[in-house]
Every structure is written in structure tokens, then in C-alpha cells.
Amino acid sequence: MRNVTIITLILLCFSCERDQEKILPQKTRLTSSVYASATIQPDSLYQIYSAVAGILDNNLTEEGNLVQKGGAILQIINRTSQPEFD
Predict the structure, then answer these.
(1) Sign of the Cα pseudo-torsion (8, 14, 17, 18, in order)
(2) For the chain, how are helix, strand and coil distributed in percent, rounded to 5?
(3) Distances in Å between the alpha carbon of 22 and those of 13, 26, 66?
(4) Are 80 and 53 in contact (CB under 8 A)?
(5) Where are the extended beta strands (E) located within the chain?
(6) How far apart are CA 21 and CA 24, in angstroms?
(7) Which one, of 54, 40, 41, 50, lies nearest residue 73 by Cα?
(8) How far apart are CA 53 and CA 82, in angstroms?
(9) Measured between alpha carbons, how far is 18 from 25 in angstroms, rounded to an integer?
(10) Per-residue pLDDT of the chain (86 residues; tens, 9 = 90+)
(11) Residues contacting 54, CB < 8 A, separation 6+
(12) CA distance 4 to 12
């Protein structure tokens, strides 16, 4: 058992003496680019529905403007409620 311990210690000492080749990082310029597409969505989204069906005639406000509660933001042509006579 003593011989095995001595041989193991000798082998361990000799194995640590080797000079290993060091690999160092090299700085190079980045030559490739990464492109990706993304969809950005808001935290909260408000959907507005008309009380009647129709065709949009006039937009009374611009995107980003503040509006008052109950105020008109669109003008709709409602042709379904008008009687048609020949």
C-alpha cells in the first residue's frame, strides 16, 4: 500500500511539471450583423366601436389628441337607416 502511495505522488509531481500551451483570445472586428423584426404593442389598448354601422365620412380629431367624454371623434354616413325611394 505504501508503494502505491509513493508511486502516485511521484506521478502526480511529474504530471504537474509540464508546460501547457496557453490559448489567448484575439481581438477582431465584428464582420457580421444580426437583423430581426419586431412588433411593438402598447401596455393598454382601447378599442372603439360605433353604435351604428356606416361609412366613415370625416375624422374630427388627430391621433394623439385628447378628447372629451361624449365628444364626437368621427362622422359616419349611415345609409342603412335612410329609406330609398325609386
Answers:
(1) negative
(2) 15, 10, 70
(3) 20, 13, 66
(4) yes
(5) 55-59, 74-77
(6) 10
(7) 50
(8) 12
(9) 22
(10) 788 888 888 887 777 666 667 888 888 887 788 888 998 888 887 787 777 778 888 999 998 888 888 888 888 887 765 565 65
(11) 76, 77, 78, 79, 80
(12) 12
Q: What type of residue sits at position 66? A: L
| The three grid cell numbers given for residue 2, joined into one nine-digit string | 505504501
Helix (H, G, I), strand (E, B) or coil at 58: strand
Question: In terms of residues, how long is the chain?
Answer: 86
Residue type, 32: S
Q: What is the grid cell recorded at 1? A: 500500500
Quote the cell numbers at residue 25.
483570445
CA distance 75 to 59: 6
C-alpha cell at 44: 393598454
